[in-house]
Amino acid sequence: MHRMLAVVFENEDKTTQGRKALLHLDNEGSIVVHAWAIVLKNADQTTTIKESVNPGPVGTLIGTSLGGLIGLLGGPAGLAIGCAAGLLVGNIVDMNKAIVGADFIDDVSKELQPNKLALLAEIEEDSTMPVDSCMEPLGGIVFRRAVSDVEHPTHKDHIAAMKADLAQMKVEVTQAHADRKAKLQKKIDQLDSKVQEQLREAYERREEAELEEKAEAEALEDKIAASKAPAAKISPTAGTENEQDGAQNKAGEEEKMRA
Fold this sequence. Notes:
By secondary structure, the chain is α+β, with helices and mostly antiparallel strands. The protein has helices at about 10-30, 65-75, 100-110, 130-135, 155-175, 180-235, 240-259; strands at about 1-10, 30-40, 45-55, 80, 115-125, 140-145. The protein is built from seven helices and six strands; from the N terminus they run E-H-E-E-H-E-H-E-H-E-H-H-H. A hairpin with a 5-residue loop joins strand 2 (about 30-40) and strand 3 (about 45-55). The longest helix has about 55 residues, at about 180-235.
């Protein structure tokens, strides 16, 4: 499954060990790593890229899925230049075009506090166990989210990605040992709650949109009715008919007087 991975560590030494473990998993064929980066959250809330490897143009992450994730994690304070990597990603990223949902960005951002580091990667994995079993002993807090194949995913696409993650973890939990099963079940419960929350938000948005459309339609009907009302009160021939009746009555009275 195509996923974005974020593992938050307390210090640089643990992060380096996590990076080595991730690349070892790639070398042995347990996962496929498309691109990775290590970022540091600074005291001023900027995010510095410490290390990075990606298959795109040398010296840039701009325009890549990983670059977009880093830009979003930079937040309003933006992204500083990493001296070791010499890379810069702009902090102006459209959340509506993000490859992962806003809830994923929020979860990682809350854990990635100043002076902490995150190992970020775009990967393919068939099971969560290889990565988790390497990162958790190092104290790494693991976040992952399935990536939509849609170029500009919608809210519906993000929900579908979450459901895909949920489905895979439910399969894994049936095959896991007792200690692993408990950890997986906790993640399943957390993700299921997020899915239900996203579905509820989608329903509320749809209801709000329907109410707005109904209000606009009613306002238009009222406007049309108001424009027709004056025309109904005055007939185009009403004045001419009244003048003709008056002339005929006057002529009749004059003829009686002559008689």
